[in-house]
Each structure stands twice: as structure tokens, then as C-alpha cells.
Amino acid sequence: MADFHKSRSGDQDDRVRQFDQIIAKSPALEAVLEKIERVAPTASTVLILGETGTGKELIAKAIHNISPRYDRPFVKVNCAAIPLDLLESELFGHERGAFTGAIAQKVGRFDLADKGTIFLDEVGDIPLPLQPKLLRVLQEREFERLGSARTHHVDVRVLAATHRDLEQMVDRGEFRSDLYYRLNVFPVALPPLRARREDIPALVDYFVGLYSRQMGKVVDRIPEETMAALRAYAWPGNVRELQNLIQRAVILSGDGVLPNPLPSSHLETVTVMSRSTALKEVDRAFILHTLEASGWMIGGPEGAAAKLGLKRTTLLYKMKKLGISRPAQGRGIAFPVAPLDSTESSASL
Ligand SMILES: Nc1ncnc2c1ncn2[C@@H]1O[C@H](COP(=O)(O)OP(=O)(O)OP(=O)(O)O)[C@@H](O)[C@H]1O
Ligand SMILES: [Mg+2]
Prior knowledge:
Layout: H1 4-7, H2 14-20, H3 27-39, E1 46-49, H4 56-65, E2 74-78, H5 84-92, E3 93-94, E4 106-107, H6 109-112, E5 117-121, H7 131-140, E6 142-144, E7 151-153, E8 157-162, H8 166-171, H9 177-183, E9 187-189, H10 199-215, H11 224-232, H12 238-252, H13 267-272, H14 275-293, H15 304-308, H16 312-322, H17 340-347
Parallel strand pairs: 1-8, 1-9, 2-5, 5-8
Antiparallel strand pairs: 3-4, 6-7
Helix pairs in contact: 2-4, 7-9, 10-12, 12-14
Bound molecules: adenosine-5'-triphosphate and magnesium ion.
């Protein structure tokens, strides 16, 4: 088994590379990595907590990859994505005829994860009636398939994650306290990105490198103001949001410069805006940037619509909705929403 330090030294092994992709410059995230380095070699259950997009799944895979079980299965179950009545058979399996529609036997995820690791994602969404059965498998490592009396014994390491406040759910009677204590043996809390801003420049560099390589583009200049804006932004969607924004910025970059994906004049407002409003602002900034880069030409192979991968009419519609119109010659400000027809005639010169 490769230990944590060895795995960060650039060994080309696949599971090692997985661990290398965790960018951690902040003391807060460094502390998390030290914690998981300590718990990974044990068989302990780990509960990973954090807002959406903070890297919970990445951490779960890393724990498995540096554990002695690294060459055994890593089986993920998203407890929130599977309909309530199917989750039990998904986790534990069923025999043929166990219920209407059970036309064949099904092997459950706990069986599939035998000798390996099971990752119970969104564990806070496990319905109450199913919680005793999960508690039993955590305590005894045994369960029965639906429609069968035979007890299955498995050797499974359990990792779980949630963005919910389980303690509060216990207080409200929405989550069993005994299951909570069983899961909470070794909690690992991933701080939101806004609480570890030191990680932002490193993440930006990492994703710019990743996407420019993928797209065969050279992007070798990130203006200081752009980096400062990215560092100051609130990142409600955490690392996933940053990753998506950088991907779009790399797509739109020309002449080796990364465009600012955040509208700087709206920065202060963006930090307090709702997520959907913030995303709309980002769309607006990208469309504006592309229009400017295309000299406000909308249609045609060199036009903004083609560059954005949109139909000309779709782009016109979006511009109208977002209040984008061509600025007066020689000035950098946009006029208020123009009627669709006049936008089109002035923009498709
Ligand atoms: N420290 C990091 N270094 C590099 N990439 C990261 C880091 N943290 C997160 N990512 C990337 O961000 C994206 C989101 O991470 P992940 O899916 O693990 O988040 P999550 O907490 O499970 O989110 P959700 O609650 O929405 O499921 C992934 O593409 C992941 O690889
Ligand atoms: Mg996740």
C-alpha cells in the first residue's frame, strides 16, 4: 500500500494520480488530508460533511485509494437519487418474486462491495424505515436480501457523506440517533471554499492547465485583477462552481489570456446574491465578452452565436432576457434592453 506522502510524490500509478488531483494549499484543507491519511489504513467508518461541491466524493475515493482495499471494489450509492421503494433492494438485493416486478434475482450493492468499500452518498436522505437495516449492517456486517431468510455476511468498509446537518435531523426525529452515532465515528468536515481562499489561485491554475491541455489551447496569462476577483467571490457552489467557470473561461479565451468569468462591476452584489442570480450574471458576462470579441456580429461562422454554440435566434432571445444590447460606438456601456428586431438589425451589420 502506498502511503500518503509517497502517493503525493508523482508516482504514475492510477490510484496515486487520483490522490494527486486534490489541490490543497490552505491549512484547513491540509489538516483534512492529514486526517484522512490517518484514518484511511484503518477499517473505520468515515462520515464526510460539507456543502455541495466541496469535494466530498473526491475525498471518499482518496480514502479508498490509499487504503489496503484499494484494489477491491469502490461502490457508490447515491441515497438521494434512488426512489425510496427501490433503495432497499438496491442496497441489499432481492430474490426473484420478492415483490411485484422482481422478475430476476438482484445482487445488492453491499454484496458487490464485499472486501472493498461502499460509499453512501447523501446518507442524510436514507428514509427512516430503512435506517434500522442500515444500522444492523454497520454493526454486524450482516443483512438479508428482500424475499429471503438467508443472512449474508460481508466485509465492507463504509464511507458516508452528506451536506445535511445530521445532528439537527436527529433532534427533529428525522434521523435515528443510534445510526447517527454509528456513522459519526470519524467525522471529516470539508470547509466551504470561501473559508479557505488560499486554495483558490491553486485551483484556478490547476483547472486552467487541465482544460487548456484538454482543448489543445495555450492559456498562459491570468491577469492579476481576474485572479483577485476570483479570490474575492463567494463561491456558493464551491469547487464545482469554480471548475465550471474556469472551463467556460478557457473555451472563451483568445490570445492566451484567461477572460474574467465574473462580472467585476457586479462583484460585491454577486457575493450576496442567490446562486441562480449569480449564475445569470455569469452567463451575461460570458455572452457580453463573446459579443465584444466578435465585434458584435451575431450570425455567421465567425459570429458570437457560433462561438457560444447557440442558434442565432436563441442568442438574440438570451440577450433580450439578460438586457444585453450593443453599446454606443466608442463607449463601454450597454444601453437598456432594445426590442428584438432592432437588436438584430444593429447587431448583424
Ligand atoms: N481540492 C480539490 N482539488 C481538485 N479538485 C477538486 C477539489 N475539491 C473538489 N474538486 C473537484 O470539484 C468537483 C466537485 O467535487 P465532489 O463531487 O467531490 O463534491 P461533493 O462535495 O461530492 O459535491 P455534492 O455535494 O454536490 O455531491 C469534482 O470535479 C472534484 O474533482
Ligand atoms: Mg457528491
